[in-house]
Design a protein that fits this description.
The complex is a heterodimer of chains A (304) and B (242). Chain A is α/β, with parallel strands linked by helices and 304 residues long. Chain A has helices spanning 41-48, 91-101, 107-117, 133-145, 163-178, 190-196, 214-222, 235-243, 266-279, 294-303; strands spanning 4-13, 16-26, 29-34, 56-61, 64-65, 76-79, 151-154, 182-187, 199-204, 207-213, 226-232, 248-253, 259-263, 284-289. The chains are: A alpha/beta (304), B mainly alpha (242).
């Protein structure tokens, strides 16, 4: 059982703050690190893998500092985001080299086990330069698993994977988490994270915006004021009816036609809207959310 | 660290040096030296002073530092540039051991592509005085090792190691070394020249430094360059694409 602890960690590059006063605990099981691009996810993973010193605060693995401590790599497996690999090696040679660098007693067997685990046995004798993006991700996975680590850190591991590979990797991560390993992976896609991770840590603009199980995060993201534009058969009638319901905070008739609605209770609004339309015999042509971009969801989380 | 782990680092290093186009230069440069030696011998015959001038001017001042630069940056810089060095560093392996293993590959290249060609060129130029070639080979190996350690440090300090290394060779060792006599105190090529004179006293390059200083300075460059490279690698920052 391994636990990574970040205690009031900040990291800045000259004048740019990449991570701002983050405190979080990553324990056994699968944790998803969720945030938009540029939020500081890679910086956090670099801090957690001992490849970056915090400007302030501390990052430890079971109480041991990670920075300038080579011994921690006996317990950590890292899958970096960058795709650069030893292009001139075959997949098998690459994983074997990683096993040898760990000083494993039977490096050959360990490499074969890791390669089989990520289903790359058939392609293991091809040079890495011929691999697709998804295959590169998988061979990186194999190299990080070769020493059977108790902590696995993966930076955007689903990037470039096709749906089948994605499902396979998700199963693998779930299994690793189920075995009691501490697995942390980053992603900017909520659906991706909630399919695998029990625990989700949300980072936005370098700050730790939210933390909890995926249900709580999902609620945080959906139970916020939502704006929609409705195209209907009779805007005025439906707008009046909607204003009578407590799930709606505001409704405005747009000059170009349609209603702009601000709903405070998304769940109730989604039930009430079709019922009111039917009761008032107004046809609904279109319901368009206007602020569903991930950035707007994240910025809402930061402000709460 | 076990020798097996160092062997793996070295094996990857060899693939890295020769897996790139730049590695071809390692074969071409010594051929130029030996070719020129054959030409000089055919045109002038055996002449110790001329042989020494050729071996110094083209070999010690050009071939040795260039081979050291190509080999050392080839073994270190590409992995740092593309971040794949993370796979070496995310291991319970001493950073200094990684540097030593990589430097052994670079010095091995200096031996094969600079010191041995210097010996061959020396033997071609003055067949009757094999000691000339031997002295230049020894000096090349010593100077080459010092260059490798310095270029290794440069590789972990900047992403423009090759360009800065070339500027250093041209400006410091070449231009300023020729103009300002005081540069000899901090010139790897001049230290090597003193070592060469010591190995074979028939050679006179007017290096004008004490042999003890040259040996200690060369050794210090190797040791300090290696140590600081490892120290710098311990604090390697892996930054993502964000």
């Amino acid at each position: 059982m391994a636990t990574i602890q970040l205690d009031h960690v900040s990291r800045w590059y000259k004048n740019v703050v990449a991570v701002n006063d983050v405190t979080m605990t990553i324990g056994p099981g699968v944790t998803g690190l969720l945030g938009p691009n540029g939020a500081g996810k890679s910086t956090l993973i670099s801090l957690m893998s001992g490849f970056l010193a915090p400007s302030t605060g501390s990052v430890t693995l079971d109480g041991e500092p990670l920075w300038r401590n080579e011994e921690v790599y006996r317990r950590i497996g890292l899958v970096p985001e960058r795709e650069a690999l030893f292009e001139y090696l075959t997949g098998r040679q690459f994983v074997l080299a990683n096993a040898e660098l760990h000083g494993l007693p039977d490096a050959g067997a360990a490499a074969q086990t890791a390669i089989a685990l990520i289903e790359m046995t058939d392609a293991q004798d091809r040079t890495i330069s011929t691999y697709s993006k998804g295959m590169r991700q998988r061979i990186k996975m194999a190299s990080s698993l070769v020493h059977d680590p108790s902590v696995l850190l993966l930076d955007e591991p689903f990037n470039g994977m096709d749906p089948r590979q994605r499902i396979h990797l998700m199963e693998l991560l779930r299994r690793m988490g189920g075995e009691g390993r501490t697995v942390l992976f980053s992603s900017h896609i909520l659906e991706e994270v909630e399919q695998v991770a029990r625990q989700i840590e949300v980072v936005v603009a370098g700050r730790h915006a939210a933390s909890g199980d995926f249900g709580a995060i999902r609620r945080l993201m959906t139970d916020r004021p939502n704006r929609f534009v409705l195209r209907t058969g009779d805007d005025r009638v439906l707008a009046a009816a909607l204003l009578g319901d407590p799930s709606v905070r505001g409704a405005r008739l747009r000059a170009e036609g349609g209603i702009e609605v601000e709903a405070t209770d998304f769940g109730r609004f989604s039930e009430v809207l079709p019922r009111l339309a039917r009761d008032h015999q107004v046809r609904l042509f279109e319901v368009t959310p206007t602020d569903e971009s991930l950035e707007s969801v994240f910025s809402y989380l930061v402000s709460t | 660290m076990s020798t097996a782990v160092m062997g793996t680092v070295a094996r990857l290093g060899v693939r890295s040096v020769f897996g790139r186009r730049r590695g071809v230069l390692l074969f071409v440069l010594p051929l130029v030296l030996v070719g020129l030696a054959i030409l000089v011998r055919a045109m002038v015959g055996q002449d110790v002073d001329l042989a020494s001038g050729t071996l110094y001017g083209l070999g010690l001042a050009v071939l040795v530092p260039l081979v050291a630069l190509i080999a050392t940056t080839g073994v270190l810089a590409p992995e740092i540039d593309d971040g794949s060095i993370a796979y070496l560093l995310a291991k319970p392996v001493s950073r200094h051991a990684i540097v030593v293993a990589k430097l052994l590959v670079a010095v091995g290249c200096v031996l094969a592509f600079a010191a041995v060609p210097m010996l061959v060129a020396g033997l071609v130029l003055v067949t009757d005085e094999p000691g000339v070639g031997v002295a230049y080979a020894v000096g090349s190996l010593a100077g080459g090792a010092a260059y490798c350690a310095l270029f290794a440090l440069l590789s972990v300090m900047t992403r423009h190691a090759v360009v800065i290394g070339l500027i250093y060779l041209l400006v410091w060792e070449g231009l300023l070394g020729g103009l300002l006599d005081g540069v000899r105190w901090l010139s790897v090529t001049r230290w090597s020249a003193v070592i060469i004179e010591q190995v074979n006293d028939t050679i006179e390059i007017s290096a004008d430094l004490s042999p003890a200083y040259a040996v200690v300075a060369t050794a210090l460059a190797v040791v300090l360059g290696t140590w600081f490279t490892g120290w710098r690698l311990r604090g390697f920052n892996l930054t993502g694409d964000e």
